[in-house]
Automatic annotation (TrEMBL):
InterPro entries: Asp/glu_Ase-like_sf, Asparaginase/glutaminase-like, Asparaginase/glutaminase_AS2, L-asparaginase_C, L-asparaginase_N, L-asparaginase_N_sf. The lineage of its organism: Bacteria, Bacillati, Actinomycetota, Actinomycetes, Mycobacteriales. GO terms for molecular function: asparaginase activity. Pfam families: Asparaginase (PF00710). The active site is at T60. Gene3D superfamilies: 3.40.50.40, L-asparaginase, N-terminal domain. Residues 19-134 form the L-asparaginase N-terminal domain. This is Asparaginase/glutaminase.
Length: 300
């Protein structure tokens, strides 16, 4: 939320140890891929040998997207980067932002590198998350979770991101804004969706790795064929290893659907945005999204 960084430092009481920049000031629900590009560029240009780490303030609505984007974009930054948010405005008595900020500083003092998120949940649990595995905040209850989350007292058990190099030189990156993200629901009418103009589609599955495969207007298979005819790849997942047990998935490969495993669909969306923004297409894009782990995003 705009102006909240100043309130954090005022409450902390020792602003002299911080270099503060504000490359963006917007509500997180208004964030777009271009803003992820700007955030990553700001960190890349500002960090120096005098810094022990980086704290990035962010809103909760799109926290999982923005934090994941930074995890992918900052693999070349060899310092801990911690993204913090607040469940309420910082001047609200129930705000957790101050606690999250203090925990971020503890992470920076303890963890050698990577991008993380600190968040105190409504039950009082103070958790630390690998940013590339973060889940969206739960509606209404405002809990934040991730695969491999640990309490602030258990930082030694935090998943350490693997730094496989991305297929481009280290430095600034760009996220693409022409990736369509779809979630399945009963009755989803694909006739209303024109794939032309998109660079890729990321299609989430139901929890068992399935999606509707029947009906002239509701079959993901027919939609995938239309996308293929338009030259638009469709990444579908997360697909578990035993998905073949379900009859509805037998036509996925023949329709040209590209399965991804071991990561959440939101993560795959951000990763695909980065891949297309950096100019990857075809097999190179598929290899990057589905098989190359650059920030500890795979949960296998």
């Amino acid at each position: 939320m705009p102006g909240q960084t100043r309130l954090l430092l005022q409450a902390y009481g020792d602003a002299d140890g911080f270099d503060v920049i504000e490359p963006l000031s917007l509500l997180s629900e208004n964030a777009r891929p271009a803003d992820w590009t700007a955030m990553a560029a700001a960190v890349t240009s500002a960090v120096g040998p005098q810094h022990a780490g980086v704290v990035v303030t962010h809103g909760t609505d799109t926290l999982s997207y923005g934090a994941t984007a930074l995890a992918f974009a900052l693999t070349h930054v060899q310092l801990p980067v911690v993204v913090v948010a607040s469940n309420r405005p910082l001047d609200h008595p129930e705000a957790n932002g101050h606690s999250n900020f203090r925990d971020a500083l503890e992470v920076i003092d303890t963890v050698p590198g990577g991008v993380y998120v600190t968040f105190r949940n409504p039950d009082g649990s103070r958790l630390v998350h690998a940013a590339a595995r973060l889940q969206p905040s739960t509606p209404l209850s405002h809990y934040v979770h991730s695969d491999g989350e640990v309490p602030i007292t258990g930082l030694d058990e935090l998943p350490r991101p693997r730094f496989e190099p991305p297929p481009w030189p280290a430095g600034p990156v760009e996220f693409g804004d022409r990736v369509l993200y779809l979630r399945p629901y009963p009755g989803l009418d694909y006739r209303a969706i024109d794939p032309a103009g998109f660079d890729a589609v990321v299609h989430e599955t139901y929890h068992s790795g399935t999606a509707c495969a029947v009906g002239a207007s509701t079959s993901v298979l027919d939609f995938a064929r239309r996308c293929g005819a338009a030259g638009v790849p469709v990444f579908l997942g997360p697909v578990p290893d035993d998905v073949a047990a379900y009859e509805s998935v037998t036509g996925f490969a023949a329709a040209g659907l590209i399965p991804f495993r071991w990561m959440r669909a939101e993560t795959a969306y951000v990763k695909t945005s980065l891949g297309t923004g950096m100019g990857l297409t075809g097999d190179a894009l598929t290899e990057f999204v589905c098989r190359r782990e650059i920030a500890g995003e795979f949960t296998r």
